[in-house]
Structures are given as C-alpha cells and as structure tokens.
C-alpha cells in the first residue's frame, strides 16, 4: 500500500468529548480506583466506613503494635463473644456514638477520655472487718470521704502513682483526675475505677484473699465497662456500654468541692453495685453450665433405654448442688432484689436507684435471671429423674431382700416339716416292730 492510498478519517470537533480534547483534565497523578487495595497491601482503615466512636477507637487500638493482646492474659467473660456482634450490640454502639457528649467543654473544663471500670467476683463472701484490717495494714484509708456506708461497702481511693512499684504521692495530695477508686462488697466482689488491670487483678485475687470466704480460685468472673466524665451534665446515665458520669458543679454557695466528690462516689457505688450484681450472676451461670454439662448424658441414656450408671452418692451430690444454686440466686443474695438495702437511705435527687437499674438493663440482668431459673427448672427435672431412679433402685433392693427372707423362712419351715415327718415315721416303725 502506497502512502497515496492511505485515507485519513477526521471527525467533526463537535462530536469529540471536551475531556478528550483537553487531556490535562485527567488527574493522572495519584489516581486510584475506588476499591483498589491500599498501598503496600496494608490493611484498610475500618474507621473510613463508620462514624461510631467505639469502632474508631477499636481500629486505632488494633493498628498499633503495642496493643497486641496476649491470649494467656485474656480473662473469662460471662457472655459469649458472639453477643458482641449481635444486632442489639450494634444498636447500642450506634446509640452511644449518637448520644455521647460531643460539645466543646467550657472554659476551665477538660473533656476526659474513656476509662475502664472492672468488676471481679473472687469469692462467695468477704468479711469486711478483715478487709478493713488488710487495707490499713497496706497503707490504705477505708472510706476517705466519710460516706458511712460500712458494712454495705468499703471504699478506698488509690492514686495512679501508687499502682507503680515506686510511689511517693499520697491520696490527699493527688488531683482527682489522678485517683482511682476501689469498692469492695460483702458479696465477694470488687469493682475498680480508672486503675490498671494488672494492679486491680493482683489486688482482688491476692491482697484480699485472707478476708475471702470460699474463694472461687480459677472460676473468677469479670465484667468490663467504659466510663467518661461529662462536666456539662449533672445527672449520670448509660449510653450503650459506656457510663457517662455527670460531674457538673453546683452553683449553690453551700455546695463545696467535697460535696461534689461525695456525690460522684455515691454514683459510682450505685453503678458498681449493678456491676457486682451482674458479675455474681455470671458465677452462678458458669457453675450451672458445668452442672448441666455433667448431666448431659442422662437424657441420651434414658432415650436409648440404657441403665443409668450413677451411684447413690453422685445423685445426692447433684441434688445438693442444684439446691445450693437455687438458694444462692433466690434466697441468700440480693440478685433478685429490685433495690439493695444500700440505697434505701440515699437522697432522691442523686438518682442512685436509676443508676442501679440502668446497669441491670444494659447487662440484661433480669433476662439472665429468668433464663437461669428456666435452666434450673430443667436441671430440677433431671434431678427428679435421678431421685426416682434412686428410689426405684432402693425399692427394688428392699423387695429382693424381703423375697430372700421369705424364701429362707420357707426353707426352714420345709426342713422343720421334713424332720417332723421323719421323726413320725421312725416312731411308727418302732410301734410296728413292737
């Protein structure tokens, strides 16, 4: 083909797109498809897709290499991990991200970051008299604000500097933002505020052990929540899984800084009592789950028509355990009480009853108590079957014993008749021979 035969096709300028006529309109630098993988194949930032405060914080924590969790240090949880991804959980997170205080603090006020509240159930009961002796021996002052709530609860204030090996700052010299709180309840639970996990775990499981009655050992249960202090609110509440403490100062001349601290501590006690209740309930849930696992094979054996290979001591032990669980839930504790005795004499304006109820609703305490009682009803049916089997076995032994005794008596009677017959025949033979 010669150059003369080449045909050039031209298009009218009005049919050409403006961006093609002007190539400089294309952003060639840093161009990237919408769903392209990030540079260097790094993990995509999850907070790009959500506005939730907790999700943003979670993604920040997981992205830093220093926040890697050690599986050996992971505590037991009273609820399954699947519950953290449920629809209710997502709704609570959305509510918290919407309702958490986002306004700028006033002049002289500082917004506080989220801190941790941890509840430990370490024993069946605490002797608070021994607890106070242990605290004084370790340099702590029980009830520093003179709330006079002993023996319902024991409160101590711990400076954050004391949680380190070398501490020199006294409690009264440390600012309120640098002081954590520990509340010890006679139900065998400890609730800590704003303190490191390592210190609180050692304090609950080692320091207070001499005052514990029937320690739980490896069956310790924990419950965690976050809390923030909002200086713009005068009432406390729960948003999602976060406690919002209202620390607004009262403008009344008679209202001092100590009064504000006392009100804050009383509010913390109300929330702590609800957390302690939930943690104590988690202990019973764990014990009942182990109980049900130990009797899981009984319905299978009954449906197969097999013989139950259980001794009398096993059946009596299981019956006693079930009665103990039901008594701890409904009789010997405040788990089912609508309001503990601790709050009967509290001031109504503080709203401590509402704080206690909010924790119960946030942690589904009422539903869990109802579910626990239903599981105990099922376990009671299993125990009834075991007792019936025990009674049947005992009755069968008695029946065979009676049958054996009757058989022996019949045998002796036959032998006596045989001897009498033999003696009669001998006498008759002697008479005939005479």
Q: What's this model, at a glance?
A:
44% of the residues lie in helices and 12% in strands.
What does this structure look like?
The chain has ten helices and nine strands. By secondary structure, it is of the alpha+beta class. Strand 8 (237-239) and strand 9 form a beta hairpin. The longest helix has 69 residues, at 365-433. The chain is elongated. The N and C termini lie far apart (164 Å).
Draw up the topology in text.
Layout (H helix, E strand, L loop, with lengths): L17 H4 L31 H11 L23 H13 L15 E7 L1 E4 L1 H10 L16 E6 L19 E7 L3 E5 L3 H11 L4 E4 L5 E10 L6 E3 L2 E5 L10 H38 L2 H7 L8 H19 L21 H11 L2 H69 L1
Parallel strand pairs: 7-9
Antiparallel strand pairs: 1-5, 1-7, 2-6, 3-4, 4-5, 8-9
Helix pairs in contact: 6-8, 6-9, 6-10, 8-10
What do the pLDDT scores average to? 75
SSE-based structural type: alpha+beta
Which strand-content bin applies to the residues?
5-15%
H/I helix tally: 10
Can you tell me the overall shape?
Answer: elongated
Strand order of the largest sheet: 3-4-5-1-7-9-8
Q: What proportion of the residues is helical, as a percent range?
A: 40-55%
State the end-to-end CA separation. Answer: 164 Å
Runs in which pLDDT lies below 50 for 5 or more consecutive residues are: 1-87, 100-111
Oligomer: single chain
Largest sheet: 7 strands, mixed
How many strand elements?
Answer: 9
Radius of gyration based on Cα positions? 37 Å
Series of H and E elements: HHHEEHEEEHEEEEHHHHH
């Amino acid at each position: 083909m010669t150059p003369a035969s080449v045909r050039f096709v031209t298009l009218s300028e009005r049919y050409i797109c403006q961006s093609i006529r002007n190539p400089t309109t294309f952003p060639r630098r840093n161009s990237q498809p919408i769903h392209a993988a990030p540079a260097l194949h790094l993990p995509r930032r999850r907070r790009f897709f959500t506005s939730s405060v907790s999700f943003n914080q979670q993604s920040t924590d997981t992205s830093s290499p220093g926040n890697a969790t050690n599986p050996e240090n992971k505590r037991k949880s009273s609820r399954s991990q699947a519950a953290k991804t449920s629809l209710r959980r997502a709704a609570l997170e959305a509510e918290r991200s919407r309702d958490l205080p986002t306004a700028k603090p006033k002049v002289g006020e500082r917004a506080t970051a989220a801190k941790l509240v941890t509840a430990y159930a370490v024993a069946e009961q605490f002797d608070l008299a021994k607890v106070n002796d242990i605290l004084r021996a370790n340099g702590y002052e029980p009830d520093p604000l003179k709330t006079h709530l002993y023996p319902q609860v024991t409160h101590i204030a711990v400076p954050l500097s004391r949680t380190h090996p070398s501490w020199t700052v006294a409690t009264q010299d440390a600012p309120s933002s640098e002081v954590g709180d520990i509340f010890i309840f006679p139900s065998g639970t400890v609730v800590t505020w704003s303190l490191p996990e390592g210190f609180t775990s050692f304090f609950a499981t080692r320091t207070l052990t001499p005052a514990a009655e029937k320690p739980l050992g490896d069956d310790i249960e924990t419950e965690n929540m976050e809390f923030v202090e909002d200086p713009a609110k005068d009432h406390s509440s729960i948003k999602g899984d976060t406690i919002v403490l209202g620390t607004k100062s009262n403008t009344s001349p008679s209202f001092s800084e100590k009064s504000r601290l006392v009100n804050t501590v009383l509010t913390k006690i109300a929330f702590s009592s609800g957390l302690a209740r939930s943690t104590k309930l988690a202990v019973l849930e764990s014990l009942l789950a182990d109980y049900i696992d130990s009797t899981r094979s009984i319905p299978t054996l009954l449906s197969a028509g097999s013989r139950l290979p259980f001794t009398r001591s096993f059946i009596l032990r299981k019956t006693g355990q079930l009665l103990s669980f039901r008594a701890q839930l409904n009789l010997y504790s405040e788990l089912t009480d609508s309001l503990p005795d601790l709050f009967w004499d509290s001031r109504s304006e503080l709203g401590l009853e509402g704080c206690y109820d909010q924790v119960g609703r946030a942690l589904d305490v009422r539903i869990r108590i109802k579910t626990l009682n239903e599981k105990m009803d099922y376990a009671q049916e299993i125990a009834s079957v075991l007792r019936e089997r025990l009674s049947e076995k005992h009755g069968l032994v008695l029946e065979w014993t009676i049958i054996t005794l009757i058989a022996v008596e019949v045998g002796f009677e036959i032998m006596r008749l045989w001897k009498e017959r033999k003696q009669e025949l001998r006498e008759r033979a002697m008479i005939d021979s005479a």
